Amino acid sequence: MSVSSILTKDVSFAAELIRQGLLVAFPTETVYGLGADATNSAAVAGIFEAKRRPAFDPLIVHLPNSAAAAQLVLEFPPAAGLLAERFWPGPLTLVLPKKPLISDLVTAGLPGVGIRVPCHPVALRLLNEAACPIAAPSANPFGKISPTTAQHVVDGLGGRIDAVLDGGPCSVGLESTVVSFMHDAPLLLRHGGLPLEMIEDAIGPIHVATSNPANDDAAQSSPGMLSRHYAPGIPLRLRAITENAVPCHGLRCGLLTVDEARCGDGFVRVHSVGSTSDLRTCAANFFASLRSLDSAGLDVIIAHRFPDHGLGVALNDRLERASRNDLPTIG
Ligand code: TXA
Ligand code: MG
User: Fold this and answer.
1) pLDDT at site 329
2) Fewer C-beta within 10 Å: the chain N or C terminus?
3) 0.90 exceeded by the pTM?
4) Which residues are CB-contacts of 277 (< 8 A; sequence separation ≥ 6)?
5) Pairing outcome for strands 33-37 and 134-135
6) CA distance 140 to 144
7) CB 75: neighbour CB atoms within 10 A?
């Protein structure tokens, strides 16, 4: 099968492949996911194999609505219910105590399962037609940049999966925000497409898990906290938004920046993801720009940080992880 032939727009066909236990990448509003029937252990194992993902990193389970999500968990605490009501379908994953019907492979042996109702018409049609919960991590090789177009998925996983359902570019462009309800108080495990301010507006202040780059212990409660993640293949260096970015002497440098920031001459490529007054557009362009710089034959990427509020927090989180290139990759 040629790699391009795995691209399809036929949702019913894709749903049939999922039902048969095959691997189908599909669009969501955040990033493309690599989906398989969450109740089929062999299919779920295929996801880990295709991504080269370590088995300790659990998968998010996608459902078409809150009622279906509630079927998978032992309890739905009131604060979690409030978030689901306000933000689903949307870029929010809730980690809740799982029922035994969810296999330990999906949750990597953890007692909680991450569940999400995506806000994308193609994803919702796929979930309804497949009529099973769909386990799906981001559809990229483990540790690499998340895909925001069907072509990105083909580029990264083309020979290893059965189909890519093409639903155009993702509108949010950053993975979902992950909030755990496995402890006494809600805990934010990953910044993402739903800003923390909006969550706190709904349920009050919550704790935020911190990851220590020198020590990946945080990864044990949330493997998405792995210090090096979302990484391009070349080094990435961060600059304050107020700093005039200049190329490194003697190196082919690319710049990932915003409209307002200043930069010197000599960059081989410059990508602005948009204005800081419109962080939604910045987020939607972010991974595609990072990917394009990564494949431009450069020695290093210099990146301006984003303002530390709203979606800027998740964008800075991804930049910081991408900049930890000198640490060993896990998996
Ligand atoms: O937007 C998204 O979340 C995308 C789309 C496809 O839905 N998915 C995604 O999946 O980003 P992934 O596997 O790349 O990242 C999911 C992260 C995991 O690494 C882990 O940190 C956290 O979510 N997670 C998932 N299930 C969990 C669980 N049972 N307990 C704790 N953390 C969990
Ligand atoms: Mg991922």
Assistant:
1) 38
2) N
3) yes
4) none
5) antiparallel
6) 6
7) 9
Residues constituting the chain: 331
Q: In this structure, are strands 187-190 and 207-208 parallel, antiparallel, or unpaired?
A: parallel
Confirm if 30 and 52 have CB atoms less than 8 A apart. Answer: no
Cis peptide before 89 (omega within 30 of 0): yes
Give the 3-state secondary structure of residue 173: coil
Residue 31: the pLDDT is: 98
Give mean pLDDT in consecutive 10-residue pieces for the chain, a chain of 331 residues. 76 98 98 97 96 93 98 97 98 96 92 98 98 97 95 96 98 98 96 98 95 50 60 93 93 97 94 98 98 96 98 97 62 26
Ligand 1 atom nearest to 193, measured from its CA: 1
Task: Name all residues whose Cβ lies below 6 A of ligand 1.
Answer: 28, 30-31, 33, 57-60, 93, 95, 107, 110, 112-114, 116, 118, 136-138, 175-176, 178, 180, 189-190, 222-224
Strands (DSSP E) contained in 117-224 are: 134-135, 163-165, 177-180, 187-190, 207-208
Nearest one of 250, 252, 306 to 280, comparing CA atoms:
306
Give a three-class secondary structure readout of 100-124: CCCCHHHHCCCCEEEEECCCCHHHH
* Residues 273, 316: Cα–Cα separation, whole Å: 13
